Amino acid sequence: MPPDHPTSGASKILILGGTTEARALAERLVAEGHHVITSLAGRTADPAIPPGDIRIGGFGGVDGLVRYLREEKITRVIDATHPFARQVSENTATACAAAGVPLETVDRPQWQPQPGDQWIDVSSLTEAAAALPAGATVFLALGRQYISAFEGRDDCHFVVRMVDRPEHRLPFRSHDLLLGKPSPDAAKEAALFTLYRITHLVARNSGGDAGYGKIAAARALGIPVMMIGR
Ligand code: NAP
What we know:
The protein is an alpha/beta fold and 230 residues long. It has six helices and eleven strands. The chain has helices spanning 20-31, 61-71, 86-99, 125-131, 186-195, 213-221; strands at residues 12-16, 35-40, 53-56, 76-79, 103-105, 119-122, 137-140, 157-162, 175-179, 200-204, 225-228. The strands form two sheets. The protein has a six-stranded parallel beta sheet. The longest helix has 14 residues, at 86-99. The protein is elongated, with a radius of gyration of 19 Å. NADP nicotinamide-adenine-dinucleotide phosphate binds next to strand 2, helix 2 and helix 3. Residues 16-19, 39-41, 43, 58-61, 64-65, 81-82, 84-88, 91, 143 line the site of NADP nicotinamide-adenine-dinucleotide phosphate.
């Protein structure tokens, strides 16, 4: 059953969240009168909090999640996590099967190239790092756990945008650090790319609207995108 299917009777729903879609879903299901608990991994210091109850932090693998589902008497689970958050989705599928709780998954289609896009399709962060030409000024739209693949490319300048200030110095000889979230507004992203004289963008094909501004901005400015597939 898709997550926007009308429900009969109130249920106790666990949403695996951390995404715009998860917040919208929580808003709607709470408004419909369901008891909603959104689970966040706790990766960001100041997450956007959806309505309903919140729990933060890992469950302790599949066993921990099975225990949680039973103890909390969860009747539905919705996996609305980011498409690149693979481990939590695998654990959730296994745990729901073990606990006999119905699972729905929010599907976020990948972005498709549009006329004018200059995508270089790569299948990993390592491949993206290797594909950058020497002398590039690269916008890395990646979380802190993904940037180490670009370490050693001392012949490039990196402009890195992160939600929270990293605890350690970034591993680049030459970089700028921007703190903030992506904008869905292509004009804002384009202004940023122009200001920092970006020549290449590295992005994962996450899909969705929230992160699409940078993709549209790259198209408008003729900037090649190292697009990491799922
Ligand atoms: P991941 O690698 O798939 O998960 C690693 C572990 O983190 C899981 O095994 C689980 O720990 C815990 N975890 C992840 N998401 C959780 C959640 N919503 N609630 C409770 N525990 C969670 O995940 P990730 O890629 O680090 O992403 C973490 C969170 O950030 C997700 O909620 C995701 O939606 C959000 N997010 C991720 C990205 C991305 O690029 N990956 C982008 C935007 C938002 P236990 O095994 O201990 O339960």
